[in-house]
Amino acid sequence: MNRYENIKSCNIEELEGIASEIRNKILETVSKNGGHLSSTLGATDLIVAMHFVFDAKKDPFIFDVSHQAYAHKLLTDRWDRFDTLRQFGGISGYTKPSESSYDYYCSGHSSTSISLAMGAAKAIKLKGEERIPVAFIGDGSMSAGMVYEALNEMGDSKYPAVIILNDNEMSIAKPIGAVSKYLSQSMASPFFQKMKRGTAHLLEHLPEGATYMAKRFEESLMLITPGLLFEELGLEYIGPVNGHNIEDLIETLEIAKNLGRPVIIHTQTTKGKGYEIAEGTKEHWHGVSAFDLETGKSNKKSSSKPATTIFSETMIDLADSDDKVVGVTAAMPSGTGMSAVMEKYPDRFWDVAIAEQHAVTSMGALAKEGFKPFCAIYSTFLQRGYDQVIHDVALMDLGVTFAIDRAGIVGEDGETHQGIFDISFLRAIPNMTLLAPYNENSMKEAMEFAKEYSHPCALRYPRGAFTAPDSKVPAYTLGEAHLLQEGKEILFIGYGDGVGKAIETAKLIDQEIAILDLRFVKPLDEEKLKELSLTYTQWFVFSDSAKMGGVASALLEFVSENRIQGIDITSFEYEDNFITHGNTTLVEESLNRLPEQLAQRVTQRI
User: Fold this and answer.
1) How many angstroms separate the CA atoms of 592 and 600, rounded?
2) In the chain, pLDDT over 90 holds for what percent of residues?
3) Could you tell me the CATH number of the domain that includes residue 441?
């Protein structure tokens, strides 16, 4: 059911009422379910105006990242299901075409919207249709190079498209002030647009000297507006516009819609609009767990220390002891735990914004200069810097450490964010070493090893706390595994947080199970594995990663290459599917990967 099917017949006052109703619905739901809050509250008025001016049934609405698209979901056909937001079996926190025909594209990573709009514009032109793509992108996403690749072609092709730049940091126009606002409002008027087209036509026919003077006049206007960059790329620029004034937004969007060429509308919004506690540039309100609406305090209680916190504390210790230790993150300082070390050592640790490719390559140069870089990036986002890992780090065999946060199931963020592919895509790279800790002490030891290691390496760790309790562990030595306990015939091989899962599963089986902390999946501890193959003929592999190209795959390759007979290897890694969103326990249960389920599978196998 589309609650607002007749939105185009509403007046401004009614539209403002709809925006208010939507904000209340978002607050009510996110306070219970968790989710992205400040960005989606700030985008609500813009999205209401989009739906009023454009036709969501036929015009491609392309939301960059799409975590700010909750209002779009509520304006289409998901009001009655919105209370299931990010829940297992419920609606996604991102746009998802399989969920609704109103969602044009599946999106969870940033800076893709303008490229998609460019592709959609080409298709619309080839099909001879009367549609127009509308891309919605935040100012943070504008830091990625892919945006400018798309803008470069869009400005050259002149295909009709509307780009709404949601500037919720006021980072583009703040230095310009009132003069820019006045000129930009003038630029949005039909008169100015007509004059501009006329001037362009006139310039083609004026003598050389007059053309020069007229062109200089036109450029002087552009220099005191924040749209110079976009104008130079060949796009029309309108703005800045108040992103919370629905009447002005509708007028501006109508102008852009009728221009017949690519136009960027620069809007300014306030994050968390409508919920005073979250308003402004408060990073922790970007993505939240369930919280109390009255106080804004989180309902989440945890006695276990998150792996990210362990990384952060150890990173500070390493930086304290060695001034060659440096680090980078790509727009995730608090999410990766880098914020604390950045605060203590601002000249050695950097946030380069949403620019994973640049982050990786820049650390390569620091390694070449004799520093020890730690590149802290979520597993899902490291995918974006894959070429740079190969070309700018591994090829030169440079000692960059990739600290891969959010490895494994990440829960409510779902398909676009599950960190399950890093082992598969990194294992194939020459010079790359892969290791993984399984508790607090092993995390510290793994990071100590990485600091002293002069080649590329990647260590992975989960979102939240490790499954296994803390314990004393030996120091990491390249390619050495650690046998945690001996048994009879059956060997559980754990990698990273999979060790904890192996320990929990072994407790549920009435047999003596040997448990191996693999530690390194590249290089493998071949001598230890050969030795264990003489005693244990059934190997069960526990790792929060994709099965294809994963840990069991590496072990099968080892067994085959060494012609070891009589070894039966069973993998409990993830099958060849994208994994849905929802509570991590429920997702794992659906995948038959809870310890109780794994114990039953082991029993059936033996």
Assistant:
1) 10
2) 80
3) 3.40.50.970
pLDDT of 329 strictly over 80 = yes
Mean pLDDT of 555-565: 96
Catalytic residue among 78, 131, 271, 273: 271
- Does residue 326 sit in the same domain as residue 440? yes
The answer to whether the beta carbons of residues 54 and 257 sit under 8 Å apart is: yes
Q: Which residues contact 234 (CB under 8 A, 6 or more apart)?
A: 154, 155, 156, 158, 262
**What whole-number distance in Å separates Cα of residue 167 and Cα of residue 164?**
9
State how far the Cα of 409 lies from the Cα of 379, in Å rounded to an integer: 10
Domain count, the chain: 3
Task: Return d(Cα 474, Cα 488) in angstroms, integer.
Answer: 24
Is the preceding peptide bond at 430 cis, omega within 30 degrees of 0? no
Query: Catalytic site residue 575?
Result: no
Question: Is residue 21 in some structural domain?
Answer: yes
Q: Are residues 343 and 491 in the same domain?
A: no
CB distance 587 to 419 below 8 Å: no
Q: Are 306 and 194 in contact (CB under 8 A)?
A: no
In a domain, 417, yes or no: yes
For 364-410, how does the pLDDT look when each residue is reduced to its tens digit (9 = 90+)?
A: 999 999 999 999 999 999 999 999 999 999 999 999 999 999 999 99
**Selection from 551, 457, 537, 534 nearest residue 497 by Cα:** 551
Note if 384 is an active site residue.
yes
Q: Which of 384, 451, 460, 547 is catalytic?
A: 384
In the β-sheet with 134-138, what is the strand arrangement from edge to edge? 61-63, 134-138, 161-167, 262-268, 236-242
Structural domain containing residue 412: 307-460
**Rounded distance between C-alpha atoms, residue 530 and residue 537, angstroms:** 11
Task: Show Cβ contacts of residue 65 under 8 Å, excluding neighbours closer than 6 positions.
Answer: 94, 107, 108, 109, 110, 138, 141
Does residue 490 lie within any of the structural domains? yes
Beta carbons within 10 angstroms of residue 503's beta carbon = 23
Look up residue 37 and give its two tokens: 């809050």
Question: Which residues does 87 contact at the CB level (< 8 Å), separation at least 6?
Answer: 33, 412, 582, 583
The tokens for 135 are: 């891309």
- Per the CB < 8 A criterion, the answer to whether 316 and 310 are in contact is no
Long-range contacts of residues 481-485, Cβ cutoff 8 Å, at least 24 apart: 481/516, 481/517, 481/518, 481/519, 481/520, 481/524, 481/525, 481/528, 481/529, 482/516, 482/517, 482/519, 483/514, 483/515, 483/516, 483/517, 483/528, 483/532, 484/515, 484/516, 484/517, 485/513, 485/514, 485/515
Arithmetic mean of pLDDT over the chain:
90
330 lies in the same domain as 445: yes
Single out the residue of 241, 238, 65, 266 nearest to residue 165, CA to CA: 266
Same-domain status, 493 and 572: yes
Amino acid at 296: G
Provide the b/e sequence for 66-100 (b: ≥16 CB within 10 Å): bbbbbbbbbbbbbbeebebbbbbebbbbbbbeebb
pTM of the model: 0.89
pLDDT for res 588: 97
Catalytic annotation on 356?
yes
- Does residue 117 form part of some domain? yes
The conformation of residue 468, written as its DSSP 8-state character, comes to S
Residues 455 and 498 in one domain: no
